[in-house]
Design brief:
Layout: H1 11-19, H2 24-40, H3 45-55, H4 64-88, H5 91-100, H6 102-111
Length: 124
């Protein structure tokens, strides 16, 4: 379903891809990949719900021009929403997240056998 080339790797890339989506299908694909990316970041579900709300637009089956305009509005809403998320996540929050996982890193580091050429000595 997803190829490695289409996966989103950063919020900045997501904003660019949303803004540059040429048609409705491409926009839907970007939103789908963005949702997957946000889930991989373990973002709160309220962000996912808000993403769906911002990305929604009504299609006008009688006017392709009207549908395109509505899609452009949705693209702008999603891009603005992503920019707000980036602004709201401060360095302090990221530091706390890293520090919360520090003991897992340390435990993994000490339990794993060193490489043959490594000179790491254990005090056991």
């Amino acid at each position: 379903m997803f190829s490695g080339d289409n996966l989103i790797k950063s919020m900045g890339e997501a904003i660019d891809r949303v803004k540059n989506a040429p048609d409705a299908r491409a926009f839907e694909d970007v939103v789908c990949h963005l949702r997957t990316y946000m889930i991989s970041l373990e973002m709160d579900s309220r962000y996912l719900i808000e993403l769906e709300r911002k990305a929604y637009y009504l299609r006008n089956e009688y006017s392709e021009k009207d549908t395109k305009e509505r899609m452009e509005e949705a693209k702008n809403r999603v891009a603005k929403f992503l920019a707000e998320i980036m602004d709201n996540h401060t360095d302090g929050e990221l530091l706390v997240k890293v520090l919360n996982n520090y003991y897992l890193f340390l435990e993994n580091l000490l339990e794993r056998e060193p490489h043959k050429k490594e000179t790491f000595k254990r005090n056991s």
